[in-house]
Automatic annotation (TrEMBL):
The keyword Nucleotide-binding applies. Keywords: ATP-binding, Cytoplasm, Glycerol metabolism, Kinase, Membrane, Mitochondrion, Mitochondrion outer membrane, Nucleotide-binding, Transferase. The gene is glpk3. This is glycerol kinase. Residues 14-274 form the Carbohydrate kinase FGGY N-terminal domain. Its EC number is 2.7.1.30. InterPro entries: ATPase_NBD, Carb_kinase_FGGY, Carb_kinase_FGGY_CS, FGGY_C, FGGY_N, GK1-3_metazoan-type, Glycerol_kin. Pathway: Polyol metabolism; glycerol degradation via glycerol kinase pathway; sn-glycerol 3-phosphate from glycerol: step 1/1. GO terms for cellular component: mitochondrial outer membrane. It is found in: Cytoplasm; Mitochondrion outer membrane. Belongs to the FGGY kinase family. Residues 284-474 form the Carbohydrate kinase FGGY C-terminal domain. It holds the Pfam family FGGY_C.
Length: 534
């Protein structure tokens, strides 16, 4: 009887698929309390076939989603939770990562090219050189973005130019292009048997093919990149029923069949929603593989004068207005931890990094600029490369660990400064989320380097929460209210700055000096032989 009554108490549930760069999660929330009931996580392999190339296997991505759903359903059953209470599923994803598949076989035609990938640098240089005045912001008035290796259009162009299977599928009209959200929704709603080929405004706004004012694919932009519009997914709002789940009935997760997929947001937009940043001026910073600071600018797109992107924050319903954000994007945050672990072997697990850094409490003048994929905001400098400087005989791996954590904080400070300059209203505290926020030393360092308090919610899965909120609030589902008075109170922890601002400014000035040293490294110019002659 007790078990039965606890089942009844739960009310409607909403699930979220959170497909990130380094892992996939499936999470189930209580729609009334926003409480996380259960989840499962699977790591994703990244391959680096050549220097600067980053790929993931589309099949593995899809398989990881199925595995996370299956395991979470098993856990819910053990908790005596009725899976049929799940009323909707939201999708949130690593943005910009580019896939092309064959709609007749359902097979991907190449690995997914991950957002961090640099193979398109020569494509980008060629495109910038053909713009008037060699201006990387040539398309910004329509897209809100600079021409960069980061965005999907150049990756898609590379696939069409370099992969025969893709070029042929485009010619024979069998090709479908999509970011990770489109691939997952298409596969989960039936794939080659009636799968829905769609994306939402937030993911579309990261392709460079989307006009952020008209909120649709732009024929001129498609012509500029020479991409046929028929391969693009249909653009929908971030909160509406796209299609119904189709899953093999023999699986435990088979009972998710028939549930609507009704929320879709790029991961950084989802975190903004999950952090309840619905008011103009509210902002959040997410520490994942990269680091992303988004500030809600309301119903008007604001163009940055300081190297930030203008992006669609969300559009929570077919008839609802779009909301925009300014974004500072940093390519390497958590990825630096993975690099220290997998490439240098100075730590065995991510949690060791905090201990190692805390054992010295200083970088001892060592600065680490992890420009592995060039520099993103506010520089947009693809020719930069990683650099570690200020080394002495005294420097050891603990100092390097500390410098790696400081690098994440300094990069955030740079985008926060740009954000404050663009808006004219400085942020008085920073709301944070993402995997790295469990590192308490990092959070304290961040407060010290920004000279403002850092506020971390006690439920760290804000990205998945945002996708669940969008799915649960969709018309035809309506189990999650987004009215301000209905949003649940969020408990959080605050980190106050503990060093004096002078020391903080000194360290920041040194960081900026290190960044300059990292610039213009990987250039295509001929190299001088050291005595001034080419």
């Amino acid at each position: 009887m007790a078990a039965f009554s606890s089942r009844v108490m739960l009310g409607p549930l909403v699930a979220a698929i959170d497909q990130g760069t380094s892992s996939t999660r499936f999470l189930v929330f209580n729609a009334k309390t926003a409480e996380l009931l259960s989840h499962h996580q699977v790591e994703i392999n990244q391959s680096f076939p050549k220097e600067g190339w980053v790929e993931e296997d589309p099949k593995e991505i899809l398989q990881s989603v199925y595995e996370c759903m299956e395991r979470t359903c098993e856990k819910l059953t053990q908790l005596n939770v009725d899976i049929s209470n799940i009323k909707a599923i939201g999708v949130t994803n690593q943005r910009e990562t580019t896939l092309v598949w064959d709609k007749e076989t359902g097979e991907a035609l190449y690995n997914a090219i991950v957002w961090l990938d640099l193979r398109t640098q020569s494509t980008v240089e060629r495109l910038i050189n053909k713009t008037p005045g060699r201006n990387k912001n040539h398309l910004k008035h329509k897209t809100g973005l600079p021409i960069s290796t980061y965005f999907s259009a150049v990756k898609l162009r590379w696939l069409m130019d370099n992969v025969d299977e893709v070029a042929e599928a485009v010619l024979t009209r069998r090709a479908m292009f999509g970011t990770v959200d489109s691939w997952l929704i298409w596969c989960l709603t039936g794939g080659k048997s009636g799968g829905v080929h769609c994306t939402d405004v937030t993911n579309a706004s990261r392709t460079m093919l989307f006009n952020i004012h008209t909120l649709d694919w732009d024929p001129e932009l498609c012509k500029y990149f020479d991409i046929p519009m028929e391969i693009l997914p249909k653009v929908r709002s971030s909160s509406e029923i796209y299609g119904l789940m189709k899953i093999c009935s023999s699986l435990k997760s088979g009972c998710l069949s028939g549930i609507p997929i009704s929320g879709c947001l790029g991961d950084q937009s989802a975190a903004l929603v999950g952090q309840m940043c619905f008011q103009e001026g509210q902002a959040k910073n997410t520490y994942g593989t990269g680091c992303f600071l988004l500030r809600n600018t309301g119903a008007k797109p604001v163009m940055s004068e300081h190297g930030l992107l203008t992006t669609v924050a969300y559009k929570l319903g077919r008839d609802k207005p779009a909301c925009y954000a300014l974004e500072g994007s940093v390519a390497i945050a958590g990825a630096v931890v993975r690099w220290l672990k997998d490439n240098l072997g100075i730590i065995q697990t991510s949690t060791e990094l905090e201990k190692l850094a805390a054992s010295v409490g200083t970088s001892y003048g060592c600065y680490f600029v992890p420009a592995f994929s060039g520099l993103y905001a506010p520089y947009w400098e693809p020719s930069a490369r990683g650099i570690i400087c200020g080394l002495t005989q005294f420097t050891n791996k603990s100092h390097l660990a500390f410098a790696a954590l400081e690098a994440v904080c300094f990069q955030t400070r740079e985008i926060l400064d740009a954000m404050n300059q663009d808006s004219g209203i400085p942020l008085t505290q920073l709301q944070v989320d993402g995997g790295m926020t469990s590192n308490r030393l990092l959070m304290q360092l961040q407060a010290d380097i920004l000279c403002i308090p850092v506020v971390k919610p006690s439920m760290p899965e804000t990205t998945a929460l945002g996708a669940a909120m969008a799915a649960g609030a969709a018309e035809g589902v309506s189990v999650w209210s987004l009215h301000p008075e209905d949003l649940s109170e969020v408990t959080s922890e605050k980190f106050e700055p503990q060093i004096n601002p002078e020391e903080s400014e000194f360290r920041y000035a040194r960081w900026k000096k290190a960044v300059q040293r990292a610039m213009n490294w990987e250039t295509t110019e001929p190299i001088s032989n050291g005595n001034g002659h080419k």
